[in-house]
Amino acid sequence: MSKPTVLNTDEAKEQVGEHADSSQNVQTPLKMNNSINTSGLRQHKALFLDRDGVINVDHGYVGHYDDFEYVNGIFDVVRMYASVHYKIVIVTNQSGIARGRYTESDFHVLMDKVKEDFADNGVSEVAVYYCPHHIEGSVAKYAIDCACRKPKPGMLLQASQELGIALNDSVLIGDSWRDIEAAHAAGLKKSVFLSEKAIPAGSTIEGVRKIQYLQQLTEIE
Q: Which of 129, 131, 175, 207 could form a disulfide with 53 if both were Cys (CB 3.0 to 4.6 A apart)?
């Protein structure tokens, strides 16, 4: 099988630009105020995390902190990677915004609190990229095609560009196969599929570790 294309920072920038220019309706990823130290934008490793189903229990369209329940083991895993200087980057589809279940403001309030919780658990720097779009959304400005909704790699490519991340040295943890496809499309060589479901039959994506519980991750991938 052919290996995934490994993108350097300039190539990632070009791909994000290509997605953004391909249609007037295509949007690039949005991000929170990511005050993360990039040390001169040298090439860092990153741990990319999906949110719902990886960081928090996926109760469906979680847009408020009262509904946010952490997955057992998440802080241990993130501390393990942060301790060896991986950047921690959340990349999350948030179609609940497009569907009118909660607002972008609600999402920011929630994620600011989540960042505080990570800091309280020893991880002070967490970047957040999110896609608020869905083509079938009920909020017109978000009901569009985009470059960021996984399985498209837009969020990972933008993070690579802005945070100086070496995608080929990074790893992603996701609970949906579209997370794994996004990682593969971005050029990551390793990903972790956190799910009770089997890897899809016929998949040709290499470098995927299948686990059911975060506690199974006891060393860096």
A: 175
Read off the tokens for 37: 């130290």
d(CA 5, CA 169): 13
Residue holding tokens 């991938």? 221
Number of domains comprising the chain: 1
Q: Of the listed 52, 66, 106, 120, which one is catalytic? A: 52
Any domain includes 196: no
Catalytic residue among 10, 50, 169, 179: 50
Phi, then psi, of 62 in degrees rounded to 5: -80, 110
d(Cα 79, Cα 100) in Å, to the nearest integer? 34
- Residue 177 counted as domain residue: no
Q: Which domain holds residue 108?
A: 27-151
CB 127 within 8 A of CB 87: yes
Asked if the structure places residue 38 within a domain, the reply is yes
